[in-house]
Every structure is written in structure tokens, then in C-alpha cells.
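Instructor's aside before we start: the two examples that follow are unrelated to each other. I chose them only because their records fit on one page, so don't look for a connection. First example below.
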Amino acid sequence: MPAKPNLPTPDFTFDADQPGACIAGVRPYRNGSYRLDAETISNKFFVHSYGHGGAGITLSWGCASKVRNIVRSHLVGAPDTKVAVLGAGVMGLTTARKKPATTDMTSRMKIRMQQLCPHLRRSATGRS
């Protein structure tokens, strides 16, 4: 039987404040679950779609369709309402791609994010 090699035990400790520390692939999430719902505050209609964490890319098309349906349903009963969709990253971009095709509905629906992504251009959504 061959002898076992005497290998050092790796150090798996991590300190985010350590110079050179790197965090990759971290996605914003909410404890419990993501948020996908709507509410009216002071006569303003908001659709929340954020906190999907690492599952954002997987859930993006289905959630974008759900957002579009929520907006469509609301605008049927309140056609003069402006709508703000809160969400960014892949959720915001996918929602922008799935926005209603009619100019009337699109002009009343704006997507908002907490922070501006420095490399994101409006043309990335395919719409101006």
C-alpha cells in the first residue's frame, strides 16, 4: 500500500475586508423569496420585480410575462395611469423586452432601478 502524501491543509477562511479579496457571482436577493407583486401608493401604480438572486436568469422570462400581465390588467381599469416597474439587472432588461407592443401602453410604463449600471445602455433593451 502506497504511503499517504503529507499535504498541507488548505486555509478556507475568508475576510472581505482583506486587500485583494474578491467576491464574484453575488446577486441581490430577499430573505424568504423574491418580490413580484403590485401596489398603488398615492395614486401611483408600482410593480415590484426584484430579489431573485442567482435564479434571476432562470426566472426572468416568466416574471417579465407576469409583470406585463399585471400592467395590462391594471391599465384596462385605469387607462390614464402611469406605471413604474421596480427592478434591474436581468429582470429589468427582460421586462423591457416583454413590454406591451402598443405605443400607448409602452409610453406609460417605465422601468426603474435603485442604481444605474455603468455599462448599460438604453439600446441594450432594443427599445428607446
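Example two begins here.
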Amino acid sequence: MALTGIEIGTPAAGARSGVALSLGSIPVPDVSDESREDAEKTLKKFGFKPVAEDVVVRDGAGTVYAQDPPHSTLRPTGSTVWIFVEVAPEEQPGLEERLTDLKAAIDRLAADIRDMNKNVHDHVNWVKDGVNDKLDRITGKLEELAKSGGTGPSKG
């Protein structure tokens, strides 16, 4: 990493040293794919002020995916460097319980539908049996009528 603007001068009032050293502008280090903690340590080590912002993504790993300014940009020491950290969404309290309740409700609905289907099936069979009985009676009467030559039931 190349350093620019090295200055030696008079120390600030109250400083312990008799010499002040200013590094001026230095390249911003690349902290992409580092954890938030490691990225902040690295930036502080080079004299920058890290500011982290979480960005929620489904499989957030807690690592830096972007920074501003980009790495290798010359900035004065003490400058702010924004780091954007991928984080997983927070689990909503009670979500597991709500999902369990929803599954139970779906299971109850499925059981109700099975019962209704059975009731409809039973009703259809009851109607079919009644129709078949009437058809059998009608068929029997028609057969009697045919045997009698069309004159009606035999008297005898």
C-alpha cells in the first residue's frame, strides 16, 4: 500500500510527543468478504472510521459485500468508510407457532372435505339404490304386462 502526503510538523496542544506525524491520504483497504468485526478492525488499523449498515438477504452470512469508498481509493486518515454487511432476516417471534397452527387448520379442513365427500358418496348411493328399486318395480310391471299380452295383470 503506497502512502502519500507524509508530513512531519509541530504536535497539537497537549500531545505527549514532540513530533506530529500525519499520513495524509492513504488507499482504503479491501474488506470485502470479511466479517463485520474483522472489517472494522482493519479499517481502524489504517485510521479510518468504519460505519456498518446491515443489508438483509435470505442467506446472509454476516460478511461485507460492498464498501464505500471502494478499496484502493485514496482518502485522508480519519475518513468514514461505509461497509455493507449481508445479514440473514431475523426470525419473527411466534412464526413457528403460527405455522404449526396453520398446518393444523389445513389438516382440519382436509378432514372436513373427506367427510363431506363420504357424505356425498353415501347420499349418491342412497339415491341410486332408490332409483334402482323403482326401476326394478317398473321393469317387473312391464314384464307382467308383456306376459299378459298387454291386458294388464292376470286375474285369477
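The longest strand covers residues 49-56.
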